[in-house]
UniProtKB/TrEMBL annotation:
Domain of life according to the entry: Bacteria
Location of this chain's protein in the cell: Cell membrane
The family this protein is said to belong to: Belongs to the binding-protein-dependent transport system permease family.
Record-given protein name: Carbohydrate ABC transporter permease
InterPro entries the UniProt entry points to: MetI-like (IPR000515), MetI-like_sf (IPR035906)
Membrane topology note: Multi-pass membrane protein
Residue ranges occupied by any ABC transmembrane type-1 domain in the UniProt entry: 80-279
PANTHER family membership: ABC TRANSPORTER PERMEASE PROTEIN MG189-RELATED-RELATED (PTHR43744), POLYGALACTURONAN_RHAMNOGALACTURONAN TRANSPORT SYSTEM PERMEASE PROTEIN YTCP (PTHR43744:SF9)
TM region positions: 20-37, 84-103, 115-135, 147-168, 189-214, 261-280
Pfam families documented for this protein: BPD_transp_1 (PF00528)
Alphabetized UniProt keyword annotations: Cell membrane, Membrane, Transmembrane, Transmembrane helix, Transport
Length: 295
């Protein structure tokens, strides 16, 4: 770009860059949105059109009977409620551990700081393995068929911890010093000063944890035997893995029903996360720390 007599004139190279950039972003949007739009189209289409491969972006043979079948299934709603419970409890536990751990590690005067950071980073490269984890959680802790087997093992993401630690390290020390002069304790500074001014990173980490827990299924599949405790992701997994069983459950209908009912269940599963994004997105644009301290 070059400036002429107070007017910014775009160069040919910059215009080419903008065109290429726009085309690339459109292609990314198409690749990202097509599977979801196709899923919605299948959810509202008749089984015959799905079997014939005629459903792409627009529903064919509009059909909502499968929604009635799924929504009349008490097990689906029980598992759906379990997912909400696991997500809420797991996110609260994860955020409590991550924020306190990251805030402590962000202080250079913390004794053993390097050791505690090393412990966290070590887990990114080495794990105990599936069998030792199963023995620990199921036998020694006795968490089999318990909510804790679902929400506790993944309660701390080291990546999220390091991101939040970096954020707290850049937190203005003047604010904390001023609060300490006013008589606030360390806990008071953390809860009344640091957290309220960290809404951007807190919202981001909360979303990361919530989406991860909402989509997880392996721990529940591994440690839960009671179907009434399953999250909806295990319900969906069983639906996809045992299509013939689903056909029998709905009265021996044609094989195409399995594909349609899977699409309906997946659509109902992702809706809460899709509805949550617009309320969190504004925190991704800019942080609330900008301009809080004048140099």
């Amino acid at each position: 770009m070059r400036r002429e007599t107070g007017i910014i004139k775009e160069s040919a190279g910059y215009r080419t860059f903008r065109v290429v950039n726009a085309v690339a972003l459109v292609l990314v949007c198409v690749v990202t949105l097509y599977p979801f739009i196709n899923l919605v189209a299948k959810a509202f289409s008749s089984e015959g059109y799905i079997a014939a491969g005629e459903v792409n972006l627009i529903p064919r043979g509009f059909n909502i009977d499968t929604f009635r079948v799924v929504m009349n299934d008490g097990t689906f709603w029980t598992n759906y409620g379990n997912t909400f419970l696991y997500t809420i409890v797991g996110t609260v536990i994860a955020m409590a551990i991550t924020t306190t751990y990251a805030y402590a590690l962000s202080k250079p005067y913390l004794k053993g700081r390097t050791f505690f950071v090393g412990i966290a980073v070590f887990t990114m490269f080495f794990g105990g393995g599936l069998i030792p984890n199963y023995i620990l959680i199921a036998n020694y802790l006795g968490w089999r068929n318990s909510i804790w087997a679902v929400v506790v093992p993944g309660a701390l993401s080291v990546f999220n911890l390091l991101v939040m630690k970096s954020f707290f390290e850049n937190f203005p020390e003047e604010l904390e010093e001023a609060a300490a002069i006013d008589g606030l304790t360390t806990y008071g500074i953390f809860f009344r000063i640091v957290l309220p001014l960290s809404k951007a990173v807190l919202a981001t980490m909360t979303l990361f944890y919530a989406v991860s827990i909402w989509n997880s299924w392996f721990n529940a599949f591994l440690f839960l035997d009671d179907k009434s405790l399953f999250p909806v992701t295990v319900y969906l997994r069983n639906l996809i893995a045992a299509a013939t069983g689903v056909q029998e459950a709905i009265g021996g209908e044609s094989a195409q029903v399995a594909s349609n009912i899977q699409a309906v269940t997946m659509l109902l599963t992702v809706l809460p996360i899709i509805c949550l994004y617009p309320f969190i997105q504004r925190y991704f644009v800019s942080g609330v720390m900008l301009g809080s301290v004048k140099g």
